[in-house]
Every structure is written in structure tokens, then in C-alpha cells.
Amino acid sequence: MRVLAVGDVVGQAGCDFLRQKMPLLKKQYQPDFILVNGENSAEGNGILPFSAKQIFDCGADVITTGNHGLRRREINDMMDEQIGLIRPANYHPDAHGAGVYLYDALSYRIGVVNLQGSVFLETYENPFGCIERLLPQIEADIILVDFHAEATSEKLALGYYLDGRVSALWGTHTHVPTADERVYPKGTGYITDLGMTGAVESVLGIEPWQSVETFLGGLPGRYKTPQGPAKLQGAVFTLDSATGLCVDVERVDIR
Asked: pTM of the predicted model, to two decimals?
């Protein structure tokens, strides 16, 4: 089976390009399951019911998030509905929503886990301890992990830690695709970062001048997403449905 994972959708530009290109991706890769990270899909940052609906309407089976997942209060009720919109499992236990989602297909069950890194991010529970606690509770044939983290070393280390115990693990958050897609020795598919879906002429999806001004010491403002050409980035993981392990990983980059 094929799993399509799409990198962080940023703003309306990202939502629009996802909607435009998803039919092409479905035709080319014929994915059996689609995951999209949508934590920056609302203008400014965070995710809103409107942007989540747009992503689901594009064909996403599950939407993962990250450190901005609950930034907008409007999303709280939708998080609580348990419809495939999840936030990192190592958020505070009283936070809205859940960090694991179980998806039942005709002949198999997929477990999706969303985690957040502990390096340079405010995390309630260590991601290594969190996933160790969760794995025995996840009754699924295939387990997929979106690790929303800053440090590449932390992502690589978690990949080795979970090798052979999950079907695939990919990183999100840094919005820059990495060229290290691979299958680990024991069968876990991996890539350090999927990249992003949003404006090409941007700094991680926001107006370049706004980012430059921040580094020059200006006051931070609400993020603005530029207009113009866009890109969609992610990866396709091919899994052995008999074992649940990965046999191939291919990067996706459409501009």
C-alpha cells in the first residue's frame, strides 16, 4: 500500500495549491492513505475549522499539527470531535483533542501518532517516553508517526529508536525538505523533513520582508503569506501490507 504524506500547509496559498494539485498526486501515486500537516494552514498561523475543512475536502484522511496546533481557540471543538484532526500526543493531557488516531480501512487498521520535539520547543512530555508509553496501546496493522520537531538529530534518533516498530516516521516543522529519504535497517520508512506546501517566494511560507525585519530587530507581527507561485512537498511511503513495514520512500516536490 502507498501512504502519501504532505508537508506543512502554510496559509491560503498552501490550501489553494493543495486543492489544485491533489488530483494529480492521486492519479500519479494512487495513494491508499493521505496525511497532511495543517498546523499553519490558517492565515497568520495555527489551524481553523475553515482551513481544516479545505484540507479534508482535498482528500486528507488525517490532518496532523504541531506546536501551533491549538494556537487558535476556534479549532478546539473540531479537535475534540475525533474526526482525524490531531495534535501532538505529548501536549499537556488536559489539552483539547488527541495525539493518536485509528483509521479503519476494509482489511487493515492504521494508527497515526503526532509527536512534538523537545529541542527548542516547549513540550510537556519527552517524545521518546511518550511513544514508548503509547505503542502498546495502539492496536493497528500500520503505525505512522509525524514528528514535529526542530532538531534534525532528534528526528534521526527517534527514527532509529522506533526502527522496526513503526511503519514510517517523518519530520515536519522546519518547512525545508531533506534529501535523506530511506528505509531503516529493520524496515521503518524515514525522512527528516517533508518540506512545506505554500508560497515559493517566502521564508518558510511567510513574506520575506517580514522575516528579514524580525532578524533586524523589528517588532514581531502577525505572519502574512505572500501571493505568487507555490509548491507542494512531501513523500510517498510504499508499505508491505503483510508486515506493515516500509519497502520504499520517494520524495514529492511539485512547483
From this structure: 0.95
